[in-house]
Amino acid sequence: MMLLNRRSFLLGATGLPLATSGLSAYAVGVEPVLMLDVTSYALTPPGWPDDLPLKIAVIADVHACEPWMSAAHIRHICDVTNSLKPDLIVLLGDYNAGHDFVSGPVMPDQWGEVLATLRAPLGIYGILGNHDVWHGALPRMRGDNGESVRAALRGANVRVLDNHAVRVSKDGRGFWLLGLADQLAYRIGRHFDGADDLPGTLRQITDDAPAIMLAHEPYIFPRVPKRISLTLSGHTHGGQVNLPIIGSPVARRESRFVYGHFVENDRHLIVSAGLGASLFPVRFMRPPEIVEITLGGKRAAGVAAAS
User: Fold this and answer.
1) Pick the CATH number of 36-306 from 3.30.1450, 3.60.21, 3.30.1370, 1.20.1250
2) Element (H, E) at 33
3) Interval 131-162: pLDDT, tens
């Protein structure tokens, strides 16, 4: 074992605060604001036809606010999303800010005007998240049970799926897109009750076409039946802060489903890291991301065969 001499100790003691300060500056000013990843998945889950290629772009957890997620920054995210040329765009909730460390709100009509620039031939579909229901544009602002968020989405030509299923067609081939209302919508003391209705939403499927489920929180996944080819979720921010060895100190209650692609009993779930932040305006080792998913087709079939 090498013993530290006094000079090494003093250098280390001086460098530690500097390193900590540098990491803090990165986590606050660089990763959450200046970085944007496109994370791609290619798969053909059970129930999805090999010969029905579909590209989906996923936007989750915008958490619009100044200066971290301004209207201009959301416009950049929309431009990158459009450049992927998806068949379909889905928005997974939490458009309202998730923390009070802001210089001002970005109101629903402002971010809605920007989301109206999204383009996809099969349309744009969205659901709401817990912050959209709990409060207004900022956590300290009074909420309206998500009505202002729904209005902004509708104004942006986004079809809102509140426990609804819609049949979409590509090249004459149909598939179902289902969206659940938020699973943490109502605070009851220290507990939450959801507005989600999984059985009622599933009953709206009227044929054997493949189906995709949108659910803001991934907690519902163990209850999603095999009838659903793929479930898409956000909410967790991928842990938001991921420290070496320790992992994420802010990982949510369902630690199995914090980030990435999960397969359980032939059921598939993809959890996005999202774009914004909650509790604090920091991200570390989990940059904001747009998710690009390719279902079916030669690329997805090749990846599935190799895995």
Assistant:
1) 3.60.21
2) helix 31-34
3) 999 999 999 999 999 999 999 999 999 999 99
